[in-house]
Specification:
One of its GO terms (molecular function) is ATP binding. The chain contains 10 helices and 14 strands. With about 300 residues, it is α/β, with parallel strands linked by helices. The protein has a 6-stranded mixed sheet, sandwiched between helices. A 4-stranded antiparallel sheet has the order 2-1-4-5. The structure holds adenosine-5'-diphosphate and magnesium ion.
Length: about 300
Amino acid sequence: MSNALEIEALRKTYAGGAGQPPKEALKGVDLAIPQGSIFGLLGPNGAGKSTLINILAGLVIKTSGKVRIWGFDQDVNPRQSRAAIGVMPQELNLDPFFTPRGALEVQAGLYGVPKRDRRTDEILELIGLSDKADAYARTLSGGMRRRLLLGKALVHDPQILVLDEPTAGVDIELRQMLWTNVRKLNEERGMTIILTTHYLEEAQEMCDEIAIINHGELIKQDTTKNLLGLMDAKTLVIEPEGGAPESFALPEGVKMGRRRDGALVFDFSRGQASVGAILDAVKAAGITIGDVRTMEPDLEDVFVELTSGK
Ligand code: ADP
Ligand code: MG
């Protein structure tokens, strides 16, 4: 088995109610997530990310389809499949009367972790709540509560950790703490990480592999590297020293623009032209190059390209 998670033809239709029509949130999603990866599930609000995650967590009942977690079919081996996965949900769902230590102990109890195997202190340390271990949850800041949710997802030492929009609306410090921990869990324990986000930059920075979901459908799954490679567009910016002629000969397919500060901006496609050819043309026009840099497309471009018109 080399996949941590396998999903086949997964569908979810929420029943309508109070004058609302039923909502088809997942329209037959197939997904395979390799063991040991940091996997990003990317899509705009309402795409169906939380629905998918909550099905994995057992919080939402699927309409149809198959879910195999660490090789265990969710319907056939519910206990084993549940034990293999820890989910940090998007919504804060903490009992205000528990302390962090209490919440972690109760969660460990729910997962049947024997007292001697519990790692409560270690987890408190990891999420930076050792000094708040015995404070009531209602007295914790929003950031601390989110950290506690991460801790709760880890009590049974799952092979797969799922984070639903872990950094939506959190401050930079918490974001960094989360990413440091997530990387550590992935590298040191080989934990497979699945996270959802609508921040493209974050997915680009964190994830080895990405699936893009839109309107309940999976529209693309590939390595981050390949997804970025899909984009053929490139930009070269040259800051000339001294002046530059109004126009000059350029390789075919290259469009030149001029920024207000005098920098020359060349848009081209990798298939059609090269940086070298443009530099040659610039030098041939008698321009002295002060500074030069290229701009690569980012996931945002890929996303717009893949979802436009849908
Ligand atoms: P995402 O996490 O990508 O923002 P969600 O999975 O939360 O998307 O939602 C997908 C769609 O399903 C949205 O249109 C949302 O309004 C709808 N939806 C989510 N939860 C429910 C629910 N409990 N009842 C009815 N519709 C829901
Ligand atoms: Mg969501």
